[in-house]
Amino acid sequence: MSRQENQPTPLSRRNFIRNCAASAATLTSAPILGGWTASGKRASAERGPATRTYSLNQNWLFGGKFNESALAANFNDASFARVSLPHCVTKLSWQKWDPTQWEDVWIYRRHFTRPAGQEGNRVFLHFDRVMAATTPVLNGHALPEHRGGYLPFHHEITGMLEDVNTLAVKVDSRWLPIPPAGNPKGVSACDYYLPGGITGPVELRIVPQTFISDVFAKPVNVLSDSRRLEVQCTIDAADVPEGKLRIEAVLSSASKKIAATSKEITLEKQGENEIALTLTGLKDVSLWDIASPHLYDVVVTLSRDGAPIHDYCTRIGFREARFDVDGFFLNGRRLHLFGLNRHEIYPYTGYAMPARVMRHDAEILKHEFNVNVVRCSHYPQSPAFLDACDELGLMVWEETPGWGYLGDDQWQKLVVENVRDMVLRDRNRPSVIIWGVRVNESRNDPALYTRTRDLAKSLDGSRPTSGSMTSTSMKTRELWRQDVFAFDDYHSAPDGSVGLTAPLPGVPFFFSETVGQFNYPRGHGFDNIYRRAGDPAIQQQQAIFHAQAHDRAASFPRCGGAIAWCAFEYASPVKPYQGVKCPGVADVFRIPKLGATFYRSQVDPKVRVVIEPNFYWDFGPHTPNGPGEHAAIFSNCDRIELLIDGRKHAVLHPDKAGYPNLKYPPFFTNLKLDGASKPTLRIHGYIGNRLALARSFSSDSAHDQFTLSLDDRELAGDGIDATRLVYTVTDSFGASRAYATGEVTFRIHGPAIIVGDNPFQLEDSGGSGAVWIKSIPGGSGPVIIHATHSQLGTKSAELRVRPFRTRSL
């Protein structure tokens, strides 16, 4: 090699070898991830030697607060705690987070042996993400610091490995000048918390001296029979290789070859070489769409003298996503964007949740809330979540980290780097339809945002750029530099309903945020916002506001749609309740609130019939006269009938006059009544003249139940995999009791642990909560969880941990 053997050379932070970086032994329980299936089978036919990847996710030693001596290879770390990745530096509850618990410098260590067969190859140390500044030290040699908490980075460590190696990682989680942090006002100046830790996987990757470091496969002329795939390949050469080189690209589906092309190449220099290939004859490919998200594999193979050297596989979809002055168009048809913003922050772990849990958020958004787009607010989110979006047909707005603040030149340089790394990581994803290259709700900065726009376009000319604007930044909209005008609109109409600004003329336009926490009746404090245990009248209003916002966005012929604020509650220092901000239509545990009743109804009844009352059927102290005179029921039925204690109370039809642009408008009725008899409500839903669904609700708490529900029945025994256990107090028919109290305690038997509060107090959570069940490293067999409510007794849930073997050093 031309470089010094003991001198690491940092490469550009490309999306290098990410998609061929797994082997059968390293995969966890997540389904398809970048060309590999959960069983370890290649999604495409083998073409050459893929990258050998060794997981470093288990057997970490966490030493707590940083000690300089712990960077030394011979440091005695026997007292350190053994942890798996992802990992948060501090134990968190679900509320009342204290930033001083993580705003410090921390130390992790990992010992591993030299992998066999790495001689003559190049070795890279890859971090998926670390919050927020990271300095790895390998065998006493410091690697360059990386600054940023949401995107991957790597270091070349060729020639640095010994027979036995020590990797020490210094993690700085203070309020540093790193987006989104750095505002001199402190942590309270950002609307979401940044708990530190190694919050993503770490891997050792071994590649040949000359390897394919990146592939961008861009579909072109997608709606034409002459569509093609332009494949831009980056080859990284330690030296200029001898012999004849050939590069081949193959497009396949379910191991069936669709098209292929190849050509001989000559590398002119060391380092990165760009090679272009074009695949044609793609007339019969199926398009990626929200209802039919067809995915294809692209495998690029580099050969020398007829023998394969290296291959790279990635996954793509053929689709045209276009923002125009007349709205948004997917594959040539106008489609109204109907979405929610998503924060990735979880109770108990911050950002440190495994792939299965991240994927479940996408499933909730797609299958429970029926949205067609999600905004990754306000940072690039987990590859596992985005993989699920690709597979489910859930469109994505992805944006650079930040919240309202622009720092100095060095801070802005990191913004540019984040845009670059975000685009390089995710530009092959069909789900991503737009790049957010502005810091959320920041002032107009023409110089900075011209740089970020031009950079995104130079790396990916197939997607437009945008960034959320506020009424303040709209005042200087002549300084706006993006392709699509996205507006965060929280103003109220004169009657107190949701007010939306008409689209600006001459530019593509849609609403990137609306509803949120700002459309409350005057006089209500922030302790009475949309939390499940709060004021029921305000909770009921949340779903109405969301329905109004989407209806009014759809009333503008040129509007692309609306992505409302927001899907899930999240930990925040900005006007929270007990440290939790509550604009989510689901709570921090991802359990739907009344705000979700609107979204749950917006689905074709051929898929499922829905009846969702926007109220609690309860005549207790919070609602002594019932749901009120203008109670809403969300449903996709043609009509509904209400019976109270078996007597017909009302026949209702959807309010098409009040909500003319919703496919399934709400139903309204007068349910102000005396509940002294503790009546039962029954709702019949009809499609045409057919009774399609019936639901019952009891106001008699004497027959309340305590229920458990697991998201999954099997985990991988890797000490990383986890699934959610939801516990709820319900009426006798299974409807939630939002004002139930009591204490829940847990016992667990088998190879798993509980991640969450034990015991758990239900009073603040509105009668529902969740913990996560996490496997133990190397464990296998049945797991039984017993949950006991202080008044309603004990329920049990069971799952199985399957054996897991990993190529871990």
Q: Which overall shape is indicated by the principal axes computed on the Cα atoms?
A: globular
Strand content: 25-35%
Named at the architecture level, the CATH assignment of the largest domain is Alpha-Beta Barrel
Number of domains: 5
Supply the CATH class of the largest domain: Alpha Beta
CATH superfamily of the largest domain: Glycosidases
Radius of gyration: 27 Å
Structural class: mainly beta
Poorly predicted segments: 1-48
Major sheet characteristics: 9 strands, parallel
Number of helices: 7
- What is the number of E strands? 48
Description:
- With 809 residues, this protein is mainly β.
- It folds into 5 domains: 52-207, Jelly Rolls (Sandwich); 210-316, Immunoglobulin-like (Sandwich); 324-604, Glycosidases (TIM Barrel, Alpha-Beta Barrel); 628-700, Sandwich (Immunoglobulin-like), CATH 2.60.40; 703-802, Immunoglobulins (Immunoglobulin-like), CATH 2.60.40.10.
- It contains 7 helices and 48 strands.
- The strands form 11 sheets. A 9-stranded parallel sheet has the order 26-25-24-23-22-30-29-28-27. Strands 2, 3, 4, 6, 7, 8 and 10 form a 7-stranded antiparallel sheet that branches.
- Strand 23 (373-376), helix 2 and strand 24 (395-399) form a beta-alpha-beta unit.
- Helix 1 (355-368) runs parallel beside helix 2 and helix 3 packs parallel to helix 4 (446-459).
Name the features:
Jelly Rolls, Immunoglobulin-like, TIM Barrel, 5 domains, 9-stranded parallel beta sheet, 7-stranded antiparallel beta sheet, 48 strands, 11% helix, disordered N terminus
